[in-house]
Amino acid sequence: TILRLVARACVAGARPAAAAAVPRRALASRRRRRAMPPKKSKGGAAGETTDNRLLLGRFKSTLKCGVVGLPNVGKSTFFSLLTKTAAEAANYPFCTIEPNTARTPVPDARFDELVAAHKPKSEVPAFFQLWDIAGLVKGAAEGAGLGNKFLSHISAVDGIMHVLRIFEDDDVTHVDGNVDPVRDLETIHDELRAKDIQTVKNRLESFSKAKRETDKRIKAECEILAKVLAYLEKGGQVRHAEWNGNEIEVLNELLLLTSKPAVYLLNLSAKDYCRKKNKWLMKVKTWLDEHCPKDPIIPFSCAYEQELLDLPDDAAREAHCKETGAQSALPKIITTGYHHLRLIHFFTAGSDEVKCWTIREQTKAPQAAGTIHTDMEKGFIMAEVMSFEDWKEKGGEQACRKAGRYRNEGKNYVVQDGDIIYFQFNAAKGKK
């Protein structure tokens, strides 16, 4: 029996193949049309792609980002502000040893508009997962300052938010004695790269000379590893180079630290943040433009964000922002980190629930359906899709249908950020 999951009537966690989960009226209205998979077109439907390029990193939707940097640069304070948790923020190195973990909602005006339109019983936004990782010091790759343990925590995350201290404060010690964010950048980059060099060398040494000469697969992998090693030893960051599919497959087994996407957060004093001036800003930007030209840079201020958090309500915060001429940078930091991990989300929307479902870029429709329930991926028939932009422009689902903006997509459809999707699937096949 073919059942359609009416996603807006489905409660997260319920088995979507159960007829009881779908209102009788909804089922009756849907039975008038026979569920047929979309026809294949020679050129491919909108959103379909033959681009099968691999992405660096784990291909899953539960990706997490690590907050890293030297000790006492504001990592735990930033983490506490961002997640509204009480991460310890003491004024001495290594106050954080085990990474604090949390998740924070991803701001999305599209989600807010869907909620306002449907007024659902349940609202579930997208979430961004964070780890607060202890500070690194020079020599961490050789174990200095509990470095090996901290580097293993960085290895476990999928992206890096690199916090740099650009504020002077005699009451907050610096591990190297004085504030110099360019030096701090070089220290962290050198340590991550040194660990990667060590990892690649260990992998190469794990293959015997005989295997390198007789096994074609191992020989090919060793050639790739030698290329990666040479790039790292010249000072390169793996994420900035162009790699082919075979090379990415090898890199994704190693999950090197410099292959992880990075966002640079420049932590200023509240005064400098509001006036948008600091003697280090241009020096840091120049260094990053030269060494990490593709990585986002976001100035912010833990002190200013704390001022906003301490105010009694949103009205007071709005008045303070107007007075100072500065806004909170936290929403931008969250959305930048989320999308820099190559994460997107599609929506299911209705009177019962409006929900964001996080997937990675290049995810096809069956795998997107599987984020709701594995049976939906196994028994996938097709996806009924309208973009959020069309939904907003035309004024809802029925208007999109009349305008021809409501599409049936097959198994090769690559889900786009902001799609609103209803899936059809074969419940009996999904249980096999």
Describe this structure as you would to a colleague:
This protein has 432 residues and is of the alpha/beta class. Helix content is 40%, strand content 17%. Strands 3-5-2-6-7-8 form a 6-stranded mixed β-sheet, with helices on both faces. Strands 1-13-11-12 form a 4-stranded antiparallel β-sheet. Strands 4-10-9 form a 3-stranded mixed β-sheet. Strand 9 and strand 10 form a beta hairpin. 40% of the residues are buried.
Supply the key terms.
432 residues, alpha/beta, 18 helices, disordered N terminus
Would you kindly provide a brief summary of this structure?
Helix 5 (about 180-205) runs antiparallel to helix 7. The chain has helices spanning about 25-30, 75-85, 110-120, 145-155, 180-205, 210-215, 215-235, 245-255, 270-275, 280-290, 300-310, 315-325, 330-340, 365-370, 375-380, 390-395, 395-400, 425-430; strands spanning about 1-5, 65-70, 100-105, 120-125, 125-130, 160-165, 260-265, 295-300, 345-350, 355-360, 380-385, 405-410, 420-425.
Topology:
Layout: E1 2-4, H1 24-30, E2 64-68, H2 75-83, E3 100-105, H3 109-118, E4 122-124, E5 127-132, H4 147-156, E6 159-165, H5 181-205, H6 209-214, H7 216-233, H8 245-254, E7 262-267, H9 270-275, H10 281-291, E8 297-300, H11 302-310, H12 314-324, H13 330-340, E9 343-349, E10 353-360, H14 365-370, H15 374-378, E11 380-387, H16 388-394, H17 397-402, E12 407-409, E13 419-426, H18 427-430
Parallel strand pairs: 2-5, 2-6, 4-10, 6-7, 7-8
Antiparallel strand pairs: 1-13, 3-5, 9-10, 11-12, 11-13
Helix pairs in contact: 5-7
